[in-house]
Amino acid sequence: MVLLGAAVLFAACDRTKKSTTETPKATVVLPAFDHDSAYAYVKAQTDFGPRVLGTEAHERCGDWLATTLRAFCDTVYSQHFTAKTYDGKQYPGTNFIGSIAPEKSKRIVLAAHWDSRPFADHDPLPANRETPIDGANDGASGVGVLLEVAHQLHENQPNVGVDIVFFDAEDYGPRESEHVPGDWWGLGAQHWAKNPHIEGYTAEYGILLDMVGSPNAQFMQEQFSMRDAQEVVRKVWSTAYDLGHGQYFQNKPGGVITDDHYYVNKYAPFKMIDIIHYDAASGTGFDPVWHTVNDNIQHIDRNTLGVVGTTLLQVIKNE
Ligand code: AHN
Ligand code: ZN
User: Fold this and answer.
1) CB-based contacts of 317: which residues, under 8 Å, 6+ apart?
2) Cβ(239)–Cβ(311) under 8 Å?
3) Is the pTM for the entire model greater than 0.90?
4) Which atom of ligand 1 is least distant from the CA of 290?
5) Distance (Å, rounded) from C-alpha 257 to C-alpha 262?
6) Collapsing DSSP states into helix, strand and coil, what is residue 193?
7) Is the CB of 257 under 6 A from ligand 1?
8) Nearest CA to 66 among 141, 151, 166, 162?
9) Which of 21-30, 50-59, 97-106 comes out lowest in average pLDDT?
10) Which residue, among 170, 133, 185, has the nearest Cα to 291 in the 3D structure?
11) Local structure of residue 285 (DSSP, 8 states)
């Protein structure tokens, strides 16, 4: 009887929670976003193997990204640069920019990084710590969501211009055990922010996606985003809430993260926020597979990709 009582109580609590944050109201129409398609785009990237600077997998995935973007965007730019990494090496890097409705002056940037980390320095097993990672979540998830967003915007032209930006060379920062002063993360974003694909380019604002594919991900309000573009954070989080995605987009402060958006905010003439999975309990602040060999396609949940994709499409529709 006690057990049954507890079960009923639990179910009641669960229902209350759902009705306030999860179940869309009858009037809410979710924008079309095919989470299976987004998932297939994530898998297509990880199928190349780790997209580490200087490797054939990296080059082949880059070619595929440009081709795929061309199917959905009016203009695609491949911006080549030299990535000078913390270990004294130099690699060819490429940022891809896909423009939708390039004639429109009011523009929104949607971004993610497409390279993957050369070493799993946070793996619990020391033997794995030099292994390059698939970066299914750390990299490919954001790109997969944005390719499907581009696909949907191609079917249904937005009222604003949209630029989809895939940054290279985000994740070649020093290992956790190394201490190398300098700005070694976000090399592609630093290059683009200082050298935009069009001279004098600017946008209303930008939204960066990073690690948007874990099951039941939680997106807290990242603190550089709040410092630099609080009104954009509020707009995105309240849009997600209105769609019934309040369980994912939580109105709570997240980490302080030196991600690609940090460099855009430092060097470009507009501000960018970061939608990034935050897990205060994991020890790293990110999800438990972060920078481990377990950041692979098995870890990706289509529902999370769908939540992020529909939120972005609704934000754009509201502009
Ligand atoms: C650091 O924690 C130094 N950078 C977070 C940026 C990052 C790495 N995003 C994905 N991988
Ligand atoms: Zn990373």
Assistant:
1) 31, 158, 159
2) yes
3) yes
4) 11
5) 8
6) helix
7) yes
8) 166
9) 21-30
10) 133
11) B
